[in-house]
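Practice problem 4.
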């Protein structure tokens, strides 16, 4: 379980995260929804230790969280274009975990097989569809065995069919017990994939509710107008 308590983050004198608290249970999918500039990416970056926090506590189970606890699937996937799919997935196992090449290759091939991509092992990213690239990006993250899986705007480069595939994939991973945090402004995706919605505004979570309740009966004026102005409602 991920537990975030009273998280603050500043850039200069700007308080970007202003006392964020939430928990995500194992097997749960939570989506932080918010407009551009609300602080979504900053939350992800502080969890991963890429931004310093000025106050707050982040724990996983009984322990203080550390960088290696998180697997981040970044916006736009960012595969290494000059590496084969197998190398994309196995690379960090050697570079970060210092596993020998044969072991890294075996783990990567097993993970690719789980995603139905074993026949793409020797292909390069430019020969894959957008949905396949996304699955490789997820496979590459999961081989590192994270405790928490993070997605930053996962649907930004996907068409509706690929989005449906992604929703299925994320649901399958959560069903195996992973805690998953997505940050996005894509309400339609959030509604289909999440157990819970956390609505972020100016670095504060102003609603934290089961998905159905959030969409059928938002409590704050800001969430109401956000829903009203989006095409999916
Ligand atoms: N490295 C940085 N230095 C200064 N300001 C930043 C930095 N990163 C983000 N910000 C500011 O923090 C706010 C939140 O940004 P971000 O977390 O990227 O929002 P979102 O992902 O919700 O669009 C924005 O006003 C942005 O300009
Ligand atoms: Mg962002």
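Answer key:
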């Amino acid at each position: 379980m991920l537990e975030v308590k009273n998280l603050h983050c500043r850039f200069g004198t700007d308080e970007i995260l202003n006392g964020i608290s939430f928990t995500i249970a194992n097997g749960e999918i939570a989506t932080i929804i918010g407009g551009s500039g609300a602080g979504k990416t900053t939350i992800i970056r502080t969890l991963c230790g890429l931004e310093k926090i000025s106050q707050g506590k982040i724990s996983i189970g009984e322990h203080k969280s550390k960088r290696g606890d998180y697997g981040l699937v970044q916006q736009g996937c960012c595969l290494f274009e000059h590496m084969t799919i197998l190398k994309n997935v196995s690379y960090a196992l050697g570079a970060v975990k210092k596993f020998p090449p044969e072991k890294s290759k075996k783990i990567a091939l097993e993970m690719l097989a789980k995603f139905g991509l074993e026949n793409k092992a020797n292909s390069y990213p430019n020969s894959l569809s957008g949905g396949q690239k996304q699955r490789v990006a997820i496979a590459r993250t999961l081989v590192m065995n994270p405790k928490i899986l993070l997605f930053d705007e996962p649907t930004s480069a996907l068409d509706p069919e690929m989005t449906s595939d992604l929703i299925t994939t994320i649901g399958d991973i959560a069903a195996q017990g992973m805690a998953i945090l997505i940050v996005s402004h894509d309400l339609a995706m959030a509604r289909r994939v999440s157990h819970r919605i956390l609505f972020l505004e100016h670095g504060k979570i102003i609603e934290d509710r089961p998905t159905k309740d959030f969409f059928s009966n938002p409590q704050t004026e800001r969430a109401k107008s956000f829903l009203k102005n989006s095409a999916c409602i």
